[in-house]
């Protein structure tokens, strides 16, 4: 980017737009107002001037060569100095909407209307107190008044009506718990999930168990439990980073012959940070030479105090190999889930989280989503991250085509325009149009952010040529 607006350059230089306009005029560059665009060479003149202005008196003994070297680095230093100054004095930032009425702005920033009007007039903007001004103008005059402002984010949920009223208590129904299995490498997470599926996926299903998607449902005494097969840590980090919470309970697998290891500690930290209850599955108890007490001791040292030691964490000894303790573990999961009183409203439009997604050669973008509230139906318009579309087909964890999916159901869906990212939230919306608008807006925001980042870099690059 070679051009820059007056107010942007003023902001970079830490001066008011008015001051910059005056200075530009002294250099023979006449601009209309703060929104005028400056060419690269016009901006350079001013930047050079301000550098000279800020330059400390040179040491008399400094050689010409050193002076030249100093001059070469001055641009960079000036940028850094300004950056440092900005960081040194953290200023309060006031959020204002994209368009604001003059008198509302005065009230928001705690200044008199006449002060605000005065600054507007100085800028050449003649607005009445009841007139709306745009954010860029407001930012400039606030800057002149020594106040930093930022654009108020209109919550997407509000703008597009994604935020629905709170669910009525009578609409809430119990929903199955969603479990993530976590633990150190080779402690038996996959084996444990396999054992769980073997023990519980209804035996009547012919042809054994084929797992089609990164999540599975098992049924224990008529109660469903949903397991996410996404590697535990990934699920927690990527999803938490996006503000999604998918797991109700974490099953921490610790091998009885190995004890608490680095990734066990990480898993504990993740679960605690997400405020998710932990159930310890002490695995490989079929092995000789194991020391369960030592493992319990290590768990206590890492903040996981099990019940028999006076804490409230359940620890179930299991063997993924022999199947011992698996039934017990599932019972404990159901018990813990019961205490959480997990509920959702199957009547509303669906919302949830993308668990994994990929581009399939034949089928296009394929996403595994976890429906967390509402019911997702074939034909629903949905938006997920920066992709949207209509649900064309849905498959459950056994690869069976289904027509609708209620709360706590993992499903594979077809029909999205792009491949969303794991951890993206998804929403079903009333109309295709809304889904498209949301995605367009999200993409625009990303583009703007990228552009801003480029503008900043280019400005620093400019100094290199001075
Ligand atoms: P990563 O996915 O690599 O982190 O490992 P994991 O935690 O999923 O472990 P996995 O289930 O792959 O098991 C690792 C090894 O331990 C395999 O060789 C399993 O056969 C063995 N193993 C798992 N559970 C048991 C158990 O209960 N008893 C015994 N004896 N071996 C087990
Ligand atoms: Mg594994």
TrEMBL record:
Keywords: Cytoplasm, GTP-binding, Initiation factor, Nucleotide-binding, Protein biosynthesis. The keyword Protein biosynthesis applies. Residues 177-325 are annotated as: G-domain. It comes from the Bacteria. Residues 66-90 have a biased composition (Basic and acidic residues). It is found in: Cytoplasm. GTP binds at residues 183-190, 229-233, 283-286. GO terms for cellular component: cytosol. Residues 55-90 are annotated as: Disordered. Residues 174-343 form the Tr-type G domain. GO terms for molecular function: GTP binding; GTPase activity; translation initiation factor activity. The keyword Protein biosynthesis applies. Belongs to the TRAFAC class translation factor GTPase superfamily. Classic translation factor GTPase family. IF-2 subfamily. One of the essential components for the initiation of protein synthesis. Protects formylmethionyl-tRNA from spontaneous hydrolysis and promotes its binding to the 30S ribosomal subunits. Also involved in the hydrolysis of GTP during the formation of the 70S ribosomal complex. This is Translation initiation factor IF-2.
